[in-house]
Amino acid sequence: MAVLKIENVSKIFQGGTTAVDDLSLEVSDGELVCLLGPSGSGKSTLLRMVGGFERPTQGKIFIDEADITDQWPERRPTAMVFQSHALWSHMNVFKNVAFGLRLRGLPAAEIRQNVEGVLEMVGLAGYGKRMIHQLSGGQQQRVALARSLVLEPKILLLDEPFASLDQHLRERLREEVRDIQQRLKITTLFVTHGQDEALSMADRIVVMRDGRTEQIGRPDAVYRKPLTPFVAGFIGTMNLVEGQVMRGAFTRAGIRVPLPVADGPATLAVRPEALDLIAAEPGQAQVHRITDFGTHGIVDLELSDGTRLKSMATQPNALRPGQGVDLVPRALTVYRESREIYRDVHD
Question: Positive or negative CA dihedral for 219, 225, 231, 236?
Answer without folding.
Answer: positive
